[in-house]
Amino acid sequence: PRSVHNYVTRIAGTDYQKSSRWNSEFPTFTIDVPDDLRPTQPGATAEAWLVWTYQMGDYSSFNLVAGDHLTVNGGASHPLPPRGNNSVPNVPELLDWAVPSTVRIKLGDLVQGGGSPLAIGDNQFQFFADNTGIIDVHLEVFYPPGSAPAYTPPAAIHPFPLHSELPRLGPPARFEQIGSTQIDEEHLIHDVPPTRISVSGVVPLTMVVGNHSYANWAPELMVFPVASTEVWSTGGTTGISRIEVFLRPAGAGTPPGTAVMSLDTARDVPAPQGRYTRPFDTRDFANGDYEIFVQATTPSGLKSHPSYGNETYLWDAADLSGAYYPIQIRIQN
Fold first, then answer.
1. Does the model's pTM come out above 0.70?
2. How would DSSP label each residue in 162-227?
3. Residue 159, number of CB atoms within 10 A of its CB
4. Rounded to whole angstroms, how far apart are CA atoms 54 and 82?
5. Which regions of the chain carry the CATH code 2.60.40.10?
6. Which of 26, 211, 269, 272 has the fewest CB atoms in 10 Å of its CB?
7. How far, in Å, CA of 215 to CA of 208, rounded?
8. Which tens digits make up the pLDDT trace of 199-237?
9. Fold assignment, 172-331
10. Using CA atoms, how far apart are residues 43 and 213, in angstroms rounded to an integer?
11. How many CB atoms are closer than 10 A to CB 149?
12. What is the DSSP track for 299-314?
């Protein structure tokens, strides 16, 4: 069987770009080819093809007109092929607005000791189309059996941080409700200033660790499958060893403040997730404005990360576990 060598623009994210004559947008895609593509056997002929997909990325309509073309390294020009539909019987919906369509053009032949339509190193392909999105641009080089040269795979050309290189994150932790007040957008750090929750006497504190509640009207139900950045970053969870609540006067002292509550959840077995409601006696503290903060610890000592929905906008991943995210309260007895 013949061999096929693939070279791509990237192996992480998307290479989507728009070509629009109306907006004078004529995108260039760069493909690094570090190898000599010519076949190693005399008499063998390889074929170099450029492959891409038309895919609309907005609500405009796909359109090609006469003269639409692409250039290779600023030189050779090739007309852009139309979308194809070889369905039998014909299914017109295959060319609807949202349906991707993959096409290809032959760039040329390669023989041992001959020329090449591609350069060793970066190759630039510029598209001049009336209106279309373009994605998944890549090269495919076909070799007769036994004639393929040395090949550098995309992973060796386009290195990027692997999942295993992400920092290990602890479980998510948040206050779900303080007293009769459910924690909402108005209580979060991005509000300046956040709304303070007034409390007095003995109030229940409801905390969720390791997951999220299904909805405000069903807080006792946990999301399934679990919604946890710890799971996304590590593939699992080590459980919850301890949950602590800290309190400090607003703007005074050093975070996280004084521990006012501690739950030893590891007395029997570390739980992977939990929803806990415990009483908090505000009468033990002077009236005034305070910051209250919940934090969980895993059996290995890793701290939880805040889980209010906007924490990744406030901290880098490396700083997320153990980050101080308080909720503002006002004690009035």
1. no
2. -GGGSPP---EEEEEEETTEEP-GGGSTTSSSPPPEEE-SEEEEEEEESS-EEETTEEEEEPSS--
3. 10
4. 9
5. 172-331
6. 269
7. 12
8. 999 999 999 998 877 667 767 777 766 666 666 666 667
9. Immunoglobulin-like (2.60.40)
10. 67
11. 18
12. TT-PBPEE-SS-GGGT
In this prediction, residues 7-15 reach a mean pLDDT of 83
pLDDT digits (tens, 9 = 90+) for 256-284: 999 999 988 876 546 778 888 999 999 99
- CB-side neighbour CA atoms (13 Å) of 247: 17
- Give me the count of residues in the chain: 333
User: What type of residue sits at position 212?
Assistant: H
Taking residue 285's Cβ as centre, other Cβ atoms within 10 Å add up to 15
- The CA–CA distances, whole Å, from 281 to 176, 198, 261, 332 equal 18, 13, 10, 12
Looking at the chain, list the stretches that DSSP marks H as alpha helix, in order from N- to C-terminal side: 154-157, 229-234, 317-320
What are the backbone angles phi and psi of residue 284, rounded to the nearest 5°? -80, 0
- In the chain, the amino acid numbered 198 is S
- Which residues, listed in sequence order, are joined to residue 20 by a DSSP beta bridge? 25, 131
Cis amide bond preceding 89, omega within 30: yes
The CATH architecture of the domain made up of 3-160 is Sandwich (2.60)
Q: According to CATH, where is 2.60.120.1200 located in the chain?
A: 3-160
Tell me phi and psi for residue 318, to 5 degrees: -70, -20
Amino acid present at 162:
L
The distance of Cα 305 from the centroid of its chain, to the nearest Å, equals 18
**pLDDT tier at 191, thresholds 50, 70, 90:** low
